[in-house]
Amino acid sequence: MTDLNQQLDAPVFVALTAKGRDLAERLSADWPGSELHGLAGRAEPVEVSFSSVAEHLRELFGAGRTVVGLCAAGVLIRTLAPLLGDKLSEPAVVAMAEDGSAVVPLLGGHRGANEIARALAERLSIDAAVTTAGDRRFSVALDAPPMGWRLGNPEHYKAFVASALAGESIRLEGSADWISGSDLPLSDNGSLTIRITEKDIAGSEQELVFHPQVLTLGVGCERNAEPEELLGLVQRTLAEQGLAAGAVGAVVSIDVKADEPAVHAVAEALEVPARFFAAEILEAETPRLATPSDLVFREVGCHGVSEGAALAAAGSTGQLVQPKVKSARATCAVARSAGLVDPAGLGRARGSLAVVGLGPGNAEWRAPEVETVVRRASDLVGYGLYLDLLGPLAKDKIRHDYALGEEEARVRAALELAAEGRDVALICSGDPGIYAMAALVYELLDRADNPAWLRVEQKVVPGISALQAAAARIGAPLGHDFCAISLSDLLTPWEAIERRLKAAAEGDFVVAFYNPVSKRRTTQLARAVEILSAHRPADTPVVLGRNLGRSGETLSVLDLSELTPDKVDMLTVVLVGASTTRRIDRADGAAWVYTPRGYAKKMVPLKASGDAA
What we know:
Blueprint: E1 12-15, H1 18-28, E2 35-39, E3 48-50, H2 53-62, E4 67-70, H3 73-80, E5 93-96, E6 103-107, H4 113-124, H5 133-138, E7 149-151, H6 157-165, E8 170-173, H7 177-180, E9 192-196, E10 207-212, E11 215-221, H8 227-241, E12 248-254, H9 261-270, E13 274-277, H10 279-283, H11 294-300, H12 306-314, E14 319-326, E15 330-336, E16 352-357, H13 368-376, E17 379-383, H14 384-389, E18 398-402, H15 407-419, E19 423-428, H16 437-447, E20 457-461, H17 466-474, E21 475-476, E22 482-486, H18 494-506, E23 510-514, H19 523-533, E24 541-546, E25 554-559, E26 572-576, E27 582-585, E28 591-594
Parallel strand pairs: 1-2, 1-4, 2-3, 4-5, 8-9, 9-10, 11-12, 12-13, 16-19, 16-20, 17-18, 17-19, 21-28, 22-23
Antiparallel strand pairs: 5-6, 7-10, 11-15, 14-15, 23-26, 24-25, 24-26, 27-28
Helix pairs in contact: 2-3, 8-9, 15-16, 18-19
């Protein structure tokens, strides 16, 4: 398949029939990062199945996913029409005949749909039914230039293309292979102009201005400098040199600034990546610096941050076009590269670590943020079983599998990978902040074993915990005050656990037991039952939930007096009710369990029908 798919969002292939699924499977196999979704009962097996076509398509579209529908175009049109609003932000949608005879970009033509359609058509040896007038006539989308290029005056695009479609010719000022190799009506005497420049030129309805991203912007600042100060310095510097912000390909600095908000604010404002270099890389640029500083060297280990970073990013043939300029707390410099800037090949990104909770493992109980974060991740770290639970989300990701008991090793690996500039997802079951990896992440950060770890972007993505899952399955046993206690004494002395058990018993809390037993540890649960039994009735309801949300799920209710270690294992969460917890027997032999919060005291008794009004 064409290399275009390396520059485009990986699509979701959505099949409604077995025939469409077969074609989608073949096409998705050639597209890294793509997914295959199919209608349950008609287009399986697939990575993700769904029962409602309309609901699933709208969910994908609302999440900004690129969709290739193996179905009639009308299905996609009627389903998505109510959601249409801003064409500049809506994802690409492509319709494809299930026999591969036609492919039509329906939405987001200049957000990737046209290119995706052409790539698929090439694979199928057919023509893509691209209907965008400029694309169709000139085989190029001037309002969606290739990577490394920016259109400086998009507000003039429609009028310019209308004139070209009406027969006016175009004079090309500058060099751009993607334009000179197109079917645009180019002429040395054209009445319209396309200008290629890194200069800040306004353009007009008769002149489109394209900026090749050949500039590298080096920045430095004091710790916690105001973002407005650095951004203002950058904007003034570019304006004074007549340089276009659109010609900047990357914002670069020294690695100790990887977590500096001001640097990232500038990158975000310019809509380019931020990249960072080690001090020794910047020090190698010293012979080319215009304003080397011994003071800077003593502070950070190189003779110049902004100039050194700009030159390091521009490459050995790059040149400094604006030496360092300063404000009260910030500096910047600009270099020009001999070719387009490729940010992916510069230094390293800041890196990120997301500690992700999958919940019990059922995809339906997975928070939407989990999917967003995992799709963004380059690397997945975790216990192998948890990574397997991700299913198709783990496809095309770099996996780092660890065994049970290797908790610190997997957290250290995740932090190291993130510090290298990777986007890492550390996968946990349940909620990562409840007896899981989040606490260990911050414990290691607190130790500061590696200063680079502290510069990594951090976030915790919550999941449904085992106690929530068990409670939801059985009713509302956590309806009043409750606590959670781990009975594992591997990391916590039993004396401390026993103190907490006695406090929970005396306080009449509903108690959720995590890690209730193991092959080598069975006496703790028995002791916990003994402590609780001294403060609540023998028939207090106890809920046992095992493998919740996964294959082999079981749920049972018994009395506290019946709770013995042989009835549970490490995959079981135990909820022991308070003295007020109630059990409601159901007609099917099962039960509901709930803990009243006291609303009965607030209820107004209904009057008998014969009472006076």
